[in-house]
Amino acid sequence: MIHRLSQYYRRIKLPLRLITLMILGVASWFVVVSCATLDAQQMGGNLPPDLVSDYIYRIIKSERTIYGKYVVQRLKDENIVRASEHWQQDKALPLPAQMFRMTSELASENSPFSYGAISPWSLNENNLPNSEFEKKAMENILATGLPYKDFQVKDGKKYYSALYPDKAVSAACIDCHNQHPSHKQRYPQKVFKVGDVMGGILINLPLDP
Question: What is the C-alpha to C-alpha distance for residues 157 and 98, in angstroms, rounded to an integer?
């Protein structure tokens, strides 16, 4: 009896650990959302806006890494559950990009603060660099690999905006893009590898009261 219980425990130990990681990763996203919905002045106090944006980016980057590398990729590798573009119908995990978009939409709800992902190879046309700032910032991070920060005016409001390189942290990040029919059609020569800059994470801090 004890031997059988020991075997059963060993069999479920790894799935339980991975599921726990998944729960922690998803819960961590809500920390990002909670912090992000605060007014920029409340968050920063007397801190300069570039330092505030750096702090926000550190949170976003760490949670994206946890979800993509230690939740989605590990659960897929262990054949426990996979991520899918049609995650609701397939009863699967949201893709890392979908998880990021959902949290960014919730964070910017009823607030001038916003963050999100943009890329010149985006599968979603709404996430292509559109404004002059976004185009210039994207050119700079692709050329230098460094963040690009500046002030800008959007819809009559003044913002401090920062674009940070968005790198692929795991195979889960690149498989969706490289194998997606739209990517193959639009960007056939672009094949991402782990560690590549796939675009940028854009943070817009409102400066007007």
Answer: 28
Q: Kindly state the average pLDDT of the residues 158-165.
A: 96
Contacts of residue 183, Cβ cutoff 8 Å, sequence gap at least 6: 121, 123, 177, 190
**95: DSSP letter:** P
Q: 198: which 2 tokens? A: 């796939």
Q: Choose among 61, 60, 72, 65: nearest CA to 18.
A: 72
Note whether 96 and 173 are within 8 A (CB). yes
| pLDDT tens profile 47-69 | 889 899 999 999 888 888 888 77
What percent of the chain has a predicted confidence (pLDDT) above 90? 34
**CB 72, CB 172: distance < 8 Å:** yes
- Has residue 29 got a pLDDT over 90? no
C-alpha dist (Å) from residue 192 to 26, 63, 133: 25, 21, 25
User: What are the start-end ranges of the H helices in the chain?
Assistant: 2-36, 40-44, 49-65, 73-77, 87-90, 96-107, 132-144, 171-179, 181-186
> What's the pTM?
0.70
